[in-house]
Amino acid sequence: MTGLFDSFVRCINYLRISVTDRCNLRCIYCMPPEGISWISHSELLSYEEISAIVQIAAELGVNKIRLTGGEPLARADLPKLIEMLSQLERVEEVSLTTNGTLLKKYALELKQAGLRRVNISLDTLKADKFQKITRLGELKDALSGIEASKEAGLHPIKINMVVMKNINDDEVLDFASMTYKEELHVRFIELMPFSKVAEPVPASELRWRISRSLGMLEPCPSPPGNGPAQCYSLPGARGTIGFISPITEPFCSSCNRLRLTSYGQLCPCLLSDEGIDLRGPLRNNASAKELEHLILSVVASKPEQHKLADGIVPMKRNMSQIGG
Ligand code: SAM
Ligand code: SF4
Asked: Least enclosed by CB within 10 Å: which of 97, 230, 240, 317?
């Protein structure tokens, strides 16, 4: 067997990297409105350090990289990092998760730097609600970011909607209907209980609501991307509808990923407090072999499953720090 495997024989080929904990928005389910202590610039991994870690991980078997944050486009010169990573020999694709509000400015530059695809977070199509959910954002910026990504050829575009009961779940049909008109892939994400802003809505209920109003959802293959979504399509639709439901429909048994925080902790799971520092050894001139051992120890420590259903939530890092 070649490649990187954990103790439960899951193939680990995907690394999700948070490049910053900072963000130009303050989404209610992700960040508090104020009082956040930011990571200082000297604590952040430099682009050269990120690239060195990715190179070693790639030699072990990781071939897909996704950049996230905080808001990854809030970090200066992100296209430079994308160019560095996409030139690494064994890296097959570099993608990005973003709130989209800065994409109008950067989409073409990102594409030219080697970015394959974007996932854009969008929780409402109503301008006033967008302001309430993001506290600082404007809907028009996110929408023009989606348009700019299409024009730049960043296909397939996935739209991630975190569904919150009595906040935006009245818009689920509008989001599902977006897949009729064009090849957009909508992902309904189950709200995770990092804070108590709202109740989640189970995927089973969303599928029932969509099928009842828009027609039978047919299971279909996922578009390129390696995501954990259960995919469906509506009759005659050009795009797909996916459900990412870590609590009610956990997908741990097929998890293929590791996570690297912006300050250099390599973590085996989004939903655990475990992690090993790579920044210290890297800055103390650890050899590639030593770093390889550290990466392998994180892979070996990957838990079989998270414990969200038992109410156990990670305490040390929030989503914007580990990179959702
Ligand atoms: N700023 C970028 C964005 O919003 O796409 C990237 C970072 S954000 C932390 C990554 C993803 O995590 C987004 O799709 C966001 O909606 C999701 N997320 C954040 N907090 C969440 C929560 N409590 N439950 C479910 N998803 C969450
Ligand atoms: Fe920022 Fe993304 Fe968190 Fe919203 S979800 S506050 S855009 S990091």
From this structure: 230
Q: Is the CB of 53 under 6 A from ligand 2?
A: no
Cβ of residue 23 lying under 6 Å from some atom of ligand 2: yes
- The answer to whether position 167 is within a domain reads yes
* Cβ of 70 below 6 Å from ligand 2: yes
The upper half-sphere exposure of residue 222, i.e. CA atoms within 13 Å in the direction of its Cβ, equals 13
Q: Which residues contact 194 (CB under 8 A, 6 or more apart)?
A: 29, 30, 313, 318, 319
Q: Is residue 4 part of a domain?
A: no
262, part of any domain: yes
Query: Is residue 276 assigned to a domain?
Result: yes
The DSSP annotation for 184-216 comes to: EEEEEEEPPTTS-SS-B--HHHHHHHHHHHH-P
- How far, in Å, CA of 66 to CA of 19, rounded? 10
Ligand lying nearest the CA atom of residue 314: 1
pLDDT digits over 129-170, tens only? 999 999 999 999 999 999 999 999 998 999 999 999 999 999
CATH number for position 200? 3.20.20.70
For the ranges 123-127, 142-146, 200-204, 246-250, which has the lowest average pLDDT? 246-250
Ligand nearest to the CA of 163: 1
Find the mean pLDDT for residues 212-238. 88
Question: Is the pTM above the cut of 0.70?
Answer: yes
The CA 73 to ligand 1 mean position distance, Å, reads: 14
Domain extent, residue 122, equals 14-322
The string of DSSP codes covering 43-63 is GSPPHHHHHHHHHHHHHHT--
Please count the structural domains in the chain.
Answer: 1
